[in-house]
Amino acid sequence: MSDIDWTPISGAVLPRYAGVPSFMRLPQIAPDDPRAPEVEIGLIGMPWDGATSNRPGARHGPRGLRDASTMIREMNRSTGQLPFSAARCADMGDVAMSPVDQDEALEAAEATVASMLSNDIRPVMVGGDHLCTLTVLRALRKHRGEAFGLILLDSHTDLYPPYFGGKTLTHGNPFRQAIEEGCIDPHRTFMAGMRGTSYNTSDFDYGREKGVHILPIETCMERGWSSVMDEARAVAGGGPVYVSFDIDFIDPAYAPGTGTPEVGGPTSFEAIQCVRALRGLDIIGTDLVEVSPPFDPSGNTSWLGVSVLFELICAMQP
Amino acid sequence: MSDIDWTPISGAVLPRYAGVPSFMRLPQIAPDDPRAPEVEIGLIGMPWDGATSNRPGARHGPRGLRDASTMIREMNRSTGQLPFSAARCADMGDVAMSPVDQDEALEAAEATVASMLSNDIRPVMVGGDHLCTLTVLRALRKHRGEAFGLILLDSHTDLYPPYFGGKTLTHGNPFRQAIEEGCIDPHRTFMAGMRGTSYNTSDFDYGREKGVHILPIETCMERGWSSVMDEARAVAGGGPVYVSFDIDFIDPAYAPGTGTPEVGGPTSFEAIQCVRALRGLDIIGTDLVEVSPPFDPSGNTSWLGVSVLFELICAMQP
Amino acid sequence: MSDIDWTPISGAVLPRYAGVPSFMRLPQIAPDDPRAPEVEIGLIGMPWDGATSNRPGARHGPRGLRDASTMIREMNRSTGQLPFSAARCADMGDVAMSPVDQDEALEAAEATVASMLSNDIRPVMVGGDHLCTLTVLRALRKHRGEAFGLILLDSHTDLYPPYFGGKTLTHGNPFRQAIEEGCIDPHRTFMAGMRGTSYNTSDFDYGREKGVHILPIETCMERGWSSVMDEARAVAGGGPVYVSFDIDFIDPAYAPGTGTPEVGGPTSFEAIQCVRALRGLDIIGTDLVEVSPPFDPSGNTSWLGVSVLFELICAMQP
Amino acid sequence: MSDIDWTPISGAVLPRYAGVPSFMRLPQIAPDDPRAPEVEIGLIGMPWDGATSNRPGARHGPRGLRDASTMIREMNRSTGQLPFSAARCADMGDVAMSPVDQDEALEAAEATVASMLSNDIRPVMVGGDHLCTLTVLRALRKHRGEAFGLILLDSHTDLYPPYFGGKTLTHGNPFRQAIEEGCIDPHRTFMAGMRGTSYNTSDFDYGREKGVHILPIETCMERGWSSVMDEARAVAGGGPVYVSFDIDFIDPAYAPGTGTPEVGGPTSFEAIQCVRALRGLDIIGTDLVEVSPPFDPSGNTSWLGVSVLFELICAMQP
Amino acid sequence: MSDIDWTPISGAVLPRYAGVPSFMRLPQIAPDDPRAPEVEIGLIGMPWDGATSNRPGARHGPRGLRDASTMIREMNRSTGQLPFSAARCADMGDVAMSPVDQDEALEAAEATVASMLSNDIRPVMVGGDHLCTLTVLRALRKHRGEAFGLILLDSHTDLYPPYFGGKTLTHGNPFRQAIEEGCIDPHRTFMAGMRGTSYNTSDFDYGREKGVHILPIETCMERGWSSVMDEARAVAGGGPVYVSFDIDFIDPAYAPGTGTPEVGGPTSFEAIQCVRALRGLDIIGTDLVEVSPPFDPSGNTSWLGVSVLFELICAMQP
Amino acid sequence: MSDIDWTPISGAVLPRYAGVPSFMRLPQIAPDDPRAPEVEIGLIGMPWDGATSNRPGARHGPRGLRDASTMIREMNRSTGQLPFSAARCADMGDVAMSPVDQDEALEAAEATVASMLSNDIRPVMVGGDHLCTLTVLRALRKHRGEAFGLILLDSHTDLYPPYFGGKTLTHGNPFRQAIEEGCIDPHRTFMAGMRGTSYNTSDFDYGREKGVHILPIETCMERGWSSVMDEARAVAGGGPVYVSFDIDFIDPAYAPGTGTPEVGGPTSFEAIQCVRALRGLDIIGTDLVEVSPPFDPSGNTSWLGVSVLFELICAMQP
């Protein structure tokens, strides 16, 4: 065992705005660092927005989230958890994803996650746009040898058919692709929060035909988020599950800094409760994607994003 | 019939941020265009804030809303409507309203709407400050020959008595003026969302004396918006009705870019539900006013504004 | 009696954006002005952020709030109150607090409040960071000769133990210090809205051991704010009580401009209702703190802040 | 003599961001205050943009400039002047100019200046848009009984012919109108800094025909600003002269917050030197107009504006 | 001949902020419009940033520039030109460039320019990132059958060797690629304004070896821009020449909204003079690239960008 | 020797916006790291603004500058230097300076620098406000045993007498204090760029009496910056010298993000040339202070700041 200090330095010692900003002030341990095998939960940045159909900027997400994350303190007041004491967590850096070559970028990302998995590190991916998630799902699928469940909190299904003249790899397609490639089990796939205008019904149609549970926002609001999350657990919770959180799940009043906002979403309180409801599931990996700092003049989106990340890390722990 | 393509080009073909931004990528057909009679629903901009008592900038509303509107897709996911297929909609441009002469500005606006009405085009007015609405009401009154109902979603009644030393034409007076001029039937006039500090009770007093139904925000919150809209339909729905939506109806957390915000308003989800509840009424015209882009650093207000506009257009359809 | 005009000039006479911005356009009467004894409720600015552990800027709070406050009109529509007619209110200026010497700053602030109290002026303090509140509590304690109740609406308890190597005077400590110094009666101290990550449980432990009633946000959301405020009145209301309102009580979507935001808070509507529920208590002083204009690009926070201030002043009146 | 303290409180006593922001912390003395006759130089705000042809917001100019002005210290380091000791200066408040009635607004403004002149107070007008200047020129003309010289630093001549269908009172016309009305002597009128696209040559043609000296920016840059100002003194300096400074004279990199910016202008250093070169002239009044805070996210424009104002006040003194 | 009105509507008739914003209010004529052959100078948007190595957002450039461009008036005051009367100019829309497939995007762009050239329309390309320029150069090369000269005003040479593991198509490579492909004649290629840190000297080495004239900023500042442009004309002017203007040529104080700013550049005045010095050359096409509105909070960059565009169009005319 | 890789990873491998942002992507080696003795030039952050008299936020300077610094490439194009190859440079982190206790903060900072000096590391301090410089000067004085020269590029002398009732430790006093304490030799102290309003002449009087060479901005502009820097070298260069660069030296159009801007300063080009002129001096330490990210909406100030930092590091090398 190395002599790594796994506990982030307290804001009561080094003020929260000070110091080189690793994620949540965790130790910086690259995936190829000899100490990597000691890591249990690894935060890995994917600063890439090469599959973005609308406003770009998610490539700046990991930077913005690292900056905001030094405001996180040690304890989850509501649950009493001390997540960085309970597990050895690390900032494993950012994948060097080419901004000009989609194939290379995706391969590099998948390879990095594969390397983490080979060391039994559970990945917490910090996007980047939503296509980044596909690289994690692919690596997990290869590593595990079988499909797993998925819980998606998002305003879009990301199940769209090919786009822009036949492209299957945009940030509107990852979960369709993941189903086609056998990464996720559609019958154990749960999606909530969908809203906004749509091109047509092909994403819902595809999903429902495959067996995906999709809850539009009206249904969520009517049932209440507690009930929604009960359903999520029932659908996806009977085995290993991946959790993907798109920041545009939350209403743009709370999270303006994203590429494709949709009005009429949940509050930050509701979103946090949703994440807390995941605790106890067998979460094999998770992500927070689509934070775009150039569209976030108040900084609220990054701050909310890291608050969600913190809760996701807590939810991965008993 | 001309060979106009009434369907906006899809964001999956031309990315949503590309192209000259007409409202929702609709065809551009001026009121005096020979093809105007083919239009059924016409979006007309009134880039004017000459009646604004507080922060200006609503003159930039149509520009800001056109820019944001290219993010709108074809289908209303919640209702299943395809509003641009169901009716021939067009961007009819902006009225040339003088920024320095109120009389000329109002006359030009009313004349433009009158010209649209003469072609049986239902107006969707995009403001501009709230006095712009009066020009639509006047044109409708003259065209129809009788008063009609009004549903107002707003944080203010805009029923104030003369202002700034006797001015009856400010953005705080349009509906008082519309009642005085016989444009709207006060007994079929419904207003909800009123809040904030006030000069006195003269606006409420006037309205209630005339028979207007006014629901302050506390009443709305207590009853729930579904019940509020039932009442709106009951009061105003028994005949032709005009719907006016002031963006300051919604809480400034959601819509900061407006001239006279008032804290303590509904969420974007609630606002959207209110608009959807209007479907089925005989809506003879509608508007979205008071979006002021200079006070909207995140762009959220324009985005929410066009989302409301889209729902208004859907509500006008069966 | 002097010939002071205590009624703010109406926005219908002098537009709301015009004129030298005193708080709510009230007369400017310094604490050492010979007319000071005529004042009943005095707004006093404490432009100081020298105890801020995170993002600074609360020193600009009084300026930002004065600017926004000219948008306040005379009447509280919801309660019917005319607060500036019911009591003689004044803008008593800002304390000259040294930005580089904490001791001097706190002494100057306490002395100013003491001077106000000697004239029987109820203080409405406009921060400034939350340590400013301690100066008001100290002055009140000395003036009254005994401890009093406290109602705190905040996302933090500000009951933390010494900080940064033993500092008892930071904006995380004022109420612990106030309890230690006997200013407030812990058994009549009520706190609601607490949330976010924490260093540990020492603040809750300390408070509860002393008898303070602390309601975390989850409890508040579950019970409803009306019930929460009933409890506040029951706990703190049996005698003179001070009300402290930290703008970070409200969710950062509504109030981004603050130094230490915490996601997952109440809406502006809920916050306003909480303040209104205080009416009828024997409020001996109040404050609104932690507004930081440099982090408030839309101006929403200042506007919400003065709306809260207005309601606080109303709540101080029968 | 009253006991007014004419010296602004020092930033070394009350921090510069503190206190109710009168212009440069000068005493607040309204034009109808009994002490008004003691004032020698009066700063008067005209928060009005009702003649603005492009982006509005100059109505917020006096507020923005008051806020920035508390950063001004007592001494002009370069010239050694102590302008607030050398003359009794005061903040005389803002004129109550109707935002919805141009005639009333202009009359109120002229009347206020007339009242100042009747007390031998030299006006320093703080706009507001450039049409506000006409009200000062009219009042001066009536008070003095004869035309006077003018020095204009601006990117536009504001000599345009009627606009928007015959309007002679827009912010593009004041000096044409002032010539037509005999307020200023065209042969003693000097204008420098003109640039940008134009509708046509009618403004230059008109001016030159009347005898106005107009220097386009290319001429200024070629000759150097020192030579330009020598010419200004030669043309306009042989008698009483009014100085009008439009903030858009300066390049928008320095002053983005204005309604009609034109690229390719002088630097702030050059602009300050221009104002200093005016010292010694018989300046009967001056103004700084067209600062529009809503378009000034960094606050630079207001800060540069008050720096120019300070230099203008210094230039009015021996 | 069609009945197109080629003269943009005046801002004195329709206020400058009003109307659907085509580039400079020119008629909208798509490359495949039957009226396209009437166009002489065509503005074509390339809303694409898929080759951007640093901050994205140039995809929003055409939108931002269209919005700002309605502030352009008819006449170039300095040169007396009326560019939209002298040539038939049109807004030819934006190319539908895939945000997720570089090859398709570049092909679509080149095909569009080729179509314009087949109608003898001189292209004015509005980027987008600098790789967009390569598509214009390729189309011109194919259309003309031989290489031509190039004048580049930029802070970078864009002559870098392959990047990110061998990519030849990034926004750092277009002119190297254009030389390799024989589009431009390196001996008639002139570049000025280069500055900032660099990876190494390979771009300068390559260029100089090929015969390109490269003037770093220090040389420009020392010689003066007039002399620099004399050299540009001497090097590149003896035949057909393409002019490429990267907004990052200008100092970021003037043009912050760009992906890869470099401090220490020319002023807007100097930049405008540089463009004017091109008049009289045989300009076969031109562009303005790398404006990134998300990084332009004041809007200055778009405004400066369209001012440069206007001067480029003027420079293309006799 | 350890196996540290001293060369920052290239932006052509890991995109410039990616990765944990240490200063200029240098290795992170804390002052107490066993590898610290290998460092030759150490960048040390002082995230502290506890001596700021006006707008705060310099505590966020090191964070903002680290973020911007990843845009720096390896080579100084103008000088051909490869500063990170020529010397072993490191990011030594931030000092844990108490935001609430000035004495402790200053002691911690001085101790950190002392520790660096004991390892023969030349300090490059990144502020923080200008009082932070005093801690470096004190440590250098103690380490060297004698006074040294100083070159200050700033808009203020920071030679003010005690402030706010006798405080000698504000950001307006460090060089007076440094002279009083014998840290710097006043006869080898050179200051250029002074401008703006002043409280009085006491700072100039004090400095000149002590023998300090002070050049106000007007003198600099008249002589030219090259001549100014020749004088700087003549005055201060005959021995070891410290270089302090306050970002407010540069005009606020270029650097708005600072606490006490003064209009009328040099351009970024001029500022960079000034720093380059320092090369060859015996620079024993340097700093860049007063960058305040909360007042820097475009990010220009941080970007210009790191460009200056890079040039300072180059100037420290042969």
Which secondary structure elements does this structure contain, and how are they paired or packed?
Six copies of one chain form a homohexamer.
Chain A: E1 41-46, H1 61-69, E2 75-76, H2 83-86, E3 89-94, H3 102-118, E4 122-127, H4 131-144, E5 148-153, H5 174-180, E6 184-194, E7 197-198, H6 202-210, E8 213-216, H7 217-223, H8 225-236, E9 241-246, H9 268-276, E10 283-289, H10 300-315
Parallel strand pairs in A: 1-3, 1-4, 4-10, 5-6, 5-9, 6-8, 9-10
InterPro entries (chains A, B, C, D, E, F): Agmatinase-rel, Ureohydrolase, Ureohydrolase_dom_sf, Ureohydrolase_Mn_BS
Protein name (chains A, B, C, D, E, F): Agmatinase
Keywords (chains A, B, C, D, E, F): Hydrolase, Metal-binding
Describe the protein:
The structure is a homohexamer of 318-residue chains. The first copy, chain A, has 318 residues and is an alpha/beta fold. In chain A, 33% of the residues lie in helices and 18% in strands. Chain A starts with 40 loop residues before the first strand and ends with a helix. The interface between A and B is medium-sized, with 33 and 31 residues. Strand 7 of chain E pairs antiparallel with strand 2 (75-76) of chain F.
